[in-house]
Amino acid sequence: MEDCLWSGRAVKYSDDVARSNDEVAALLQEYADLISITGGDAFRARVYEKAARAVGGHHADVSALDLKGLQEIPNVGKSIAQKVREYFDRGSVAAVEELRAKIPDGVRRLTAIPTLGPKKAMAVYEELGVSSVEELADALRDERLRDLKGFGPKTEENIRHGIELLRSAGGRVQIDVAMELAEDVVAALSAVPGCARCTYAGSLRRMRETIGDIDILAAARQPAPIMRVFTELPYVTEVIGQGGTKTSVRTSRGLNVDLRVVPPDSWGAALQYFTGSKAHNIRTREIAVRQKLKLSEYGLFDVESGEKVVSGTEEEVYARLGLPWIPPTLREDRGEIEAGLRDELPDLVTEADLRGDLHTHTDLTDGLAPLEEMAKAAAAHGYAYYAVTDHAPDLVMQRMTDERMLAQRERVRELDGTYPTKGRRGGLRLLHGTELNIGPEGEVDWPGDFLAGFDLCVASVHSHFRQSRADLTRRLVRACENPYVHIIGHPTTRLIGRRPGIDADLDAVFAACARTGTALEINAHPHRLDLRDEDILRARRHGVKFAVNSDAHAVPHLANTRYGIGTAQRGWLTGDDVINTWPERRLRSFLRKDG
Ligand code: DGT
Ligand code: CA
Ligand code: CA
Ligand code: ZN
């Protein structure tokens, strides 16, 4: 369970000791701040503060320590050790997220500045009414921060530096951060009189897992009014470049936005150009050249006459090149041109194809919402079936027991079929499942007779990420061979920008999945997107089936499946490849391993 608070930052890979320990120290310090800000127990806040300092100064890499090792650090007790493990295993800590969610939006925006903690953010918000990075920069310039208690010249310098860091964040951001901002910009510009069309292009339209900058395209006869509204959007902090039809801006969200305004009769060519990828465009341009056409950002032209070929839509552009329309998620020059020329493009899976979600949590473990709320939301989403898969006991911090699991099962059975589903006949079918932990030897939490009681078992690696390649491979293959395991959850365990995937022989794992009828998850959380697109392409060649799951820990996470579907499309998957697009009967037959 993660929200977007930190995700506006640059995403970088780094795995060194200092980095892990600093991350945890910052997290614990933040938690201490959040406890005080939200009026929690002062003693408890101090306990976390002390632990933060101890972790920050610890000599060994805390990410490599287990619960016992963590508790050997001074001032780190069991509950803190569990939070640290949770952070490395899941990428976030439920208790921290819960408190973060209680903080006003303005304060959250301010804490996007890497050097501004929640306590100081709360102070400037409450004392000065400052609720954006831009306003904070103004307050700094007007020397209004000086009068606040606890704000010295050193603090000012830190904040100034933090704002610079945020603005210059040259790195890439996660797709959800970019998507939220892009949808906002598109909505604002579409409302401008004279704007005939507006959409986002670039890597975001191709649904890449991280986004360098946002490319917005608008069609209008008069660019000026659209440009003006664009530069005046509240989160635009600086105009970097401006020409007649192009404007580039920095935003307070940690990424830049490029806007192009083109005449309506060039829309198709411009959209095709700015969607990319560059590699795909090079191929389409070559095809154009062979047909005595010139394809550029300005449109499609006849080379001999120099005349513009009307290209109102992308379909027209592709048709002119002798190609069917190619879905943006395929435009990476990974064979889509050849497949298009042969008219063999895959019939890609879409969000509308999904009939259910097969990996979700409730507040019985680390989810935020009770079973009833999650199920109700799933029904409202239009799903036909929905699997509840809370954590199994080996993830000790989740305190699962047989009794609690069986009590949940009873409740799931009572609720099965009772939630009317939007646009479908019959109520939402609930499956009772669990997310098992794949142990260091490939073993899972429960013996077969207990596992047999579940409708569905997801099995995931949550620990011992640094075993040898041979061990990690054997571990995953064993999990596949377990007759009660149906889906391997977030198969590589990577966290985008934070933790690389485990070093296993994926081809061996994919072969085992195909052989045993075990599906691979495409975990749709934007921090994970695991499997990633390239691995999906490989797995598909082995004949593996997939499940696009939200791994939701709260109701809003159910909607993350859009990113999972984007990733599945980038892996060329069709509905037939994805088990949770199948009718319930076919799914149940797969789960019984009927073949
Ligand atoms: P990003 O921003 O790094 O996530 O990736 P893109 O693909 O959005 O790249 P960006 O923003 O530099 O450019 C947007 C699109 O514009 C790109 O996908 C294709 C097109 N484009 C940009 N520069 C070139 C170029 O030099 N040649 C060609 N053929 N196309 C280009
Ligand atoms: Ca871009
Ligand atoms: Ca760009
Ligand atoms: Zn999960």
From TrEMBL:
Residue span, Helix-hairpin-helix DNA-binding motif class domain: 68-87, 108-127, 143-162
A cellular-component GO term for this protein: cytosol
SUPFAM superfamilies linked to this entry: DNA polymerase beta, N-terminal domain-like, Nucleotidyltransferase, PHP domain-like, Sec63 N-terminal domain-like
Subcellular location: Cytoplasm
Keywords annotated in UniProt: DNA damage, DNA repair, DNA replication, DNA synthesis, DNA-directed DNA polymerase, Exonuclease, Hydrolase, Methylation, Nuclease, Nucleotidyltransferase, Sodium, Transferase, Ubl conjugation
GO BP: any one term: DNA repair
Keyword Nucleotidyltransferase attributed: yes
GO molecular function: class I DNA-(apurinic or apyrimidinic site) endonuclease activity; DNA binding; DNA-directed DNA polymerase activity; exonuclease activity; phosphoric ester hydrolase activity; zinc ion binding
Swiss-Prot/TrEMBL cofactor(s): Mg(2+)
Reaction catalysed by this enzyme: 2'-deoxyribonucleotide-(2'-deoxyribose 5'-phosphate)-2'-deoxyribonucleotide-DNA = a 3'-end 2'-deoxyribonucleotide-(2,3-dehydro-2,3-deoxyribose 5'-phosphate)-DNA + a 5'-end 5'-phospho-2'-deoxyribonucleoside-DNA + H(+); a 5'-end 2'-deoxyribose-2'-deoxyribonucleotide-DNA = (2E,4S)-4-hydroxypenten-2-al-5-phosphate + a 5'-end 5'-phospho-2'-deoxyribonucleoside-DNA + H(+); DNA(n) + a 2'-deoxyribonucleoside 5'-triphosphate = DNA(n+1) + diphosphate
Keyword Transcription regulation among record annotations: no
Record InterPro entries: DNA-dir_DNA_pol_X, DNA_pol_lamdba_lyase_dom_sf, DNA_Pol_thumb_sf, DNA_pol_X_beta-like, HHH_MUS81, Hlx-hairpin-Hlx_DNA-bd_motif, NT_sf, PHP_dom
Domain called DNA-directed DNA polymerase X: residue spans: 19-332
Function of the protein: Repair polymerase that plays a key role in base-excision repair. During this process, the damaged base is excised by specific DNA glycosylases, the DNA backbone is nicked at the abasic site by an apurinic/apyrimidic (AP) endonuclease, and POLB removes 5'-deoxyribose-phosphate from the preincised AP site acting as a 5'-deoxyribose-phosphate lyase (5'-dRP lyase); through its DNA polymerase activity, it adds one nucleotide to the 3' end of the arising single-nucleotide gap.
Protein name: DNA polymerase beta
Source organism of the structure: Streptomyces fuscichromogenes
